[in-house]
Write a structure and sequence with these properties.
Layout lengths: L3 H6 L1 H10 L6 H32 L5 H36 L20 E6 L12 H7 L3 E2 H8 L5 E2 L2 H19 L3 E4 L3 E3 H7 L12 E2 L4 E3 L3 H7 L5 E3 L5 E10 L18 E11 L4 H18 L4 E5 L11 E9 L11 E10 L3 H6 L2 E3 L5 E3 L1 E9 H11 L7 E2 L5 H4 L3 E2 L5
Parallel strand pairs: 4-9, 8-14
Antiparallel strand pairs: 1-11, 2-3, 5-7, 6-7, 9-10, 10-16, 11-12, 12-13, 13-16, 14-15, 17-18
Length: 431
C-alpha cells in the first residue's frame, strides 16, 4: 500500500492516479481516517503521560485522602485509555482497509489508457510466419495430434480444465526445464513453492481472497487460498523480516501450479489453453533496494526476451497502460507472442497474445507484507519487490503449436527444447 502521509501530502496526484488507472478508490476517506487516527494517537499519548505522572505521584508519601484521590484518578485514566485504545484500533483497521483500495502510483512514463488495446508497443522481435496452407489453431492441433483433451477435462472438472496427453506431457516438462536452466544461468535461487497460501499473504501481494472480484479459489474455513502464481508464495517468503542490505538483490524463481477462477473470462481469444483454471508456471521474483528496482525491472524483461527468442517465437514488448497495470504495479512490461490461431475478420492472419509480464511494484507490496532492509544509515526501510513470468506453460505451448505447425498436420519442436523432451516433431496419430 502507499504510505498514509504520502497520500495526505500528495492527495491530488493520488486521486488523478486512481482516475488514470480506471479504478474505484476513495483517497479522501484515507486522509480523513489518517487525521482522526493521528488525533487519537496524540490523545492516547497524553493520557498515558498523565497515567505515568499519576503512578509517579503514588510513590510519594501521601495522606489517605490524597492517596485516594490519585487512586480514583488512576482508575479513571485507565478507563479512558482503554476506550481510546479500542477506538484507535477500530480507526486503524478502517484506515488500513481504505488504504488497501488505493493503487500504487504509476511511473510517469506509463501510457495513460483504460484497456490493453491502449498499451504502447516498444519493441518487436522476429517476423510472423507466412503459411503456405491454412493454419489450424492450437485446439484443432491438440485434438488431431491427440495431445490435448478439453472435452474430458470439462466432463471431469468443469469448463477451462483440460488433460495433457502423450507428447504434450513431455513438452510441458521441457518448457519448465528450459526456463529453470535459463534462470539458473542467471544465478536465481530455485524453488518449488506451496500451492496454498494464507489470506493475509494474498492481501499483501495485492490479490483479493474473497468476494465477486476475487480471481482466486478460497479454501472454506481454513483462511487460506490456492495460489494464482508463485509471486504470492515467493513474496510472502520474507514477510515480517528485516533483510541485510548486503544480501540484496535476492533473485528467486518458483515453479508452481497456478489456480485462477477467471470469472467472466470468455470470448474467442480466451479459448483453449489461453485462459484456464489451472496451469504450471515458472515465476521470477526479486527483492532489492529502491535504487536498484528500475534497472532490475529491465533485467527481468530482458530475461523474458531471451527465453522467447530462444524458442524462436515472434513477439513484441508493450509498455502496459495505466488501466491495465493492476493495483500493485508501478510499471509493467508485457511480452505478446504471435498467435496464428487468433485470427478474425480484423486480423485474418492472427494476432498478438500475452505470454509473459514483468512488474516493478516498488515498496507497495513490501509495506503490506512488512519486508524491510537495514540501510547504511542504520534505518530500516522497505524493500522494492519485482516479479516476472519466465514461462506460463499453457500459453508458451499454445504459441509453439500454432507457430511450428506443418502442412502435414505435424508440429516441429523448437531446437532448444529437443534435448529436454527427446523428440523433434509431434506427428498426427494413426488409427
Amino acid at each position: 500500500m502507499l504510505d498514509y502521509k504520502f497520500i495526505k501530502d500528495n492527495l491530488e496526484a493520488v486521486k488523478q492516479n486512481i482516475i488514470n488507472r480506471n479504478m474505484n478508490a476513495d483517497a479522501d476517506i484515507v486522509v480523513k481516517l489518517y487525521d482522526e487516527k493521528t488525533a487519537l494517537t496524540t490523545k492516547l499519548q497524553n493520557l498515558q503521560q498523565q497515567r505515568n505522572a499519576n503512578a509517579a505521584a503514588m510513590k510519594q508519601k501521601l495522606d489517605a485522602e490524597t492517596r485516594q484521590k490519585y487512586i480514583d484518578e488512576g482508575k479513571a485514566l485507565k478507563d479512558q485509555i482503554s476506550e481510546v485504545e479500542a477506538e484507535l484500533n477500530q480507526k486503524d483497521a478502517a484506515l488500513e482497509e481504505a488504504a488497501r483500495q488505493i493503487p500504487n502510483m504509476a511511473n510517469p512514463a506509463v501510457p495513460i489508457g483504460k484497456v490493453d488495446t491502449e498499451n504502447l508497443e516498444v519493441k518487436r522481435v522476429g517476423t510472423p510466419r507466412t503459411f503456405a496452407f491454412k493454419p489450424k489453431d492450437h485446439v484443432q492441433l491438440g485434438e488431431s495430434l491427440e495431445i490435448l483433451d478439453f472435452d474430458r477435462g470439462t466432463k471431469v472438472s468443469g469448463p477451462k480444465f483440460y488433460y495433457l496427453k502423450n507428447e504434450a506431457v513431455f513438452l510441458e516438462q521441457a518448457l519448465i526445464m528450459y526456463a529453470l536452466n535459463t534462470l539458473r544461468k542467471h544465478n536465481f535461487t530455485t524453488f518449488i513453492t506451496p500451492d496454498i497460501a494464507k489470506e493475509e499473504i494474498l492481501k499483501g501481494i495485492g490479490f483479493n481472497p474473497r468476494g465477486n472480484e476475487s480471481n482466486v479459489y478460497a479454501i472454506e474455513e481454513e483462511g487460506t487460498c490456492l495460489v494464482a502464481t508463485a509471486e504470492i508464495t515467493l513474496g510472502g517468503y520474507h514477510s515480517g523480516e528485516i533483510l541485510k542490505k548486503e544480501q540484496l538483490p535476492l533473485f528467486y524463481c518458483g515453479l508452481s501450479h497456478c489456480f485462477r477462477r477467471e470469472a467472466g473470462a470468455a470470448g474467442h481469444f480466451s479459448k483453449g489453453l489461453y485462459r484456464v483454471h489451472q496451469f504450471d508456471k515458472v515465476e521470477m521474483f526479486v527483492y532489492c533496494t529502491p535504487e536498484e528496482s528500475d534497472k532490475l525491472h529491465e533485467q527481468l524483461r530482458l530475461i523474458e526476451e531471451e527465453i522467447f527468442t530462444g524458442l524462436g517465437l515472434p513477439f513484441r514488448v508493450v509498455d502496459t497502460c495505466t488501466g491495465d497495470l493492476g493495483a500493485p504495479a508501478y510499471r509493467k512490461w508485457d511480452l505478446e507472442a504471435w498467435m496464428p490461431g487468433r485470427s478474425d475478420e480484423a486480423h485474418p492472419d492472427g494476432d498478438w497474445g500475452e505470454v509473459t509480464s514483468t512488474s516493478n511494484c516498488t515498496d507497495y507490496q513490501a509495506r503490506r507484507l512488512n519486508v524491510k532492509f537495514r540501510d547504511d544509515d542504520g534505518k530500516n526501510k522497505y524493500v522494492h519487490m519485482l516479479n516476472g513470468t519466465a514461462i506460463a506453460v499453457g500459453r508458451a505451448m499454445l504459441a509453439i503449436l500454432e507457430n511450428y505447425q506443418n502442412e502435414d498436420g505435424s508440429v516441429s519442436i523448437p531446437p532448444v527444447l529437443v534435448p529436454f523432451c527427446g523428440f523433434d516433431k509431434i506427428l498426427p496419430k494413426k488409427h
